User: Which sequence fits this backbone?
């Protein structure tokens, strides 16, 4: 319904913000990432939005970047994943880390988000893995993931771990002893298991 809303940031709360646009205060549910980076109240803001209409509610969700709203709409296209669960995923990690977790099939990473259990994580991976690896989100927002999705294991595994926020030293250390002849997905998964210990 609304592509974006531009105006003054009137309020920030735990899981939503309010944008004053033309004298109307729009309550927009959002991720922790957007809340942390949207600036202070009184500043100008532009929020890309999605109107979530259900049986009992009509809520507005929004994010600062087109990449984040793009990931949100992909997540809610998965059966059993609603707007709150999608927002929880985007609060738990940035879009690059989330895309990488999906592409590599890292179910454990996805279950870190509130409300995402193993079954939901499996569905997300199953339904979005190919879409995330091949769509424009990768080309525009996270080119590192495109390289991971189409590469063979070796230095690409280090790059993938860097995208997830690990240091170069931790990434290289985690890959010591991991079988580099397996598919990249399994190399990264094994490295993440070591890092989680």
Assistant:
């Amino acid at each position: 319904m609304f592509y974006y809303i531009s105006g003054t940031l009137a309020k920030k709360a735990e899981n939503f913000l309010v944008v004053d646009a033309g004298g109307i205060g729009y309550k927009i549910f959002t991720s922790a990432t957007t809340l942390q980076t949207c600036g202070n109240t009184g500043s100008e803001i532009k929020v890309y939005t999605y109107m979530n209409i259900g049986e009992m509610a009509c809520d507005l969700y929004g994010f600062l970047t087109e990449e984040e709203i793009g990931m949100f709409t992909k997540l809610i296209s998965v059966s059993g994943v609603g707007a709150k669960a999608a927002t929880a995923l985007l609060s738990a990690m940035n879009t690059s880390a989330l895309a990488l977790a999906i592409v590599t099939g890292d179910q454990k990473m996805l279950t870190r988000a509130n409300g995402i259990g193993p079954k939901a994580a499996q569905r997300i991976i199953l339904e979005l893995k190919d879409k995330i690896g091949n769509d424009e989100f990768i080309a525009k927002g996270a080119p590192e993931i495109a390289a991971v999705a189409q590469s063979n294991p070796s230095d690409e595994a280090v790059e993938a771990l860097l995208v997830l926020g690990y240091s170069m030293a931790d990434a290289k250390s985690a890959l010591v002893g991991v079988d580099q002849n397996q598919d990249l997905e399994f190399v990264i998964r094994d490295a993440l298991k070591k890092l989680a210990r």
Summary: Residues 118-134 form the longest helix (17 residues).
